[in-house]
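@channel sequence for tomorrow's demo:
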Amino acid sequence: MALSIFDEKSLKPGESDLAGVLGNNFPLWEEIKSFVKSEYPGAIEEWKHSGKNYGWGFRLKDKKRVIIYLTPQKDFFRVALVFGEKATQAALASGISEEIKEIISSAKVYAEGRGFRLEVKNKELIEDIKILIKIKLA
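structure tokens (generated this afternoon):
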């Protein structure tokens, strides 16, 4: 099974598909998307199919880099970010939850940075995700 609930390459998800799959968490998806656009008005929205293991994912990016990845699941979604060393240190020094700090610090480091995913199943993580978005954009 793909990381995304939308795995059929020929069927690009639409807004109604997304709302149906995310259910009560669709407004949280929209809140994160709106927050990124308020912090970075030039953000470009893009759905991308990344192969059979990943399926369709949504990303907000600038011209050169992805700001945030959003991957839909049944009734929840994943947020993924990639941080360089300065952003990692800023996140670990910030007021985000200890649980998220542990996820970040234990994430594998690649040439492009440290990638990590958070599962959004309710509004509990939203404020921490907004802090992480600000760090990413700094």
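heads up for whoever presents: The mean pLDDT is 96.
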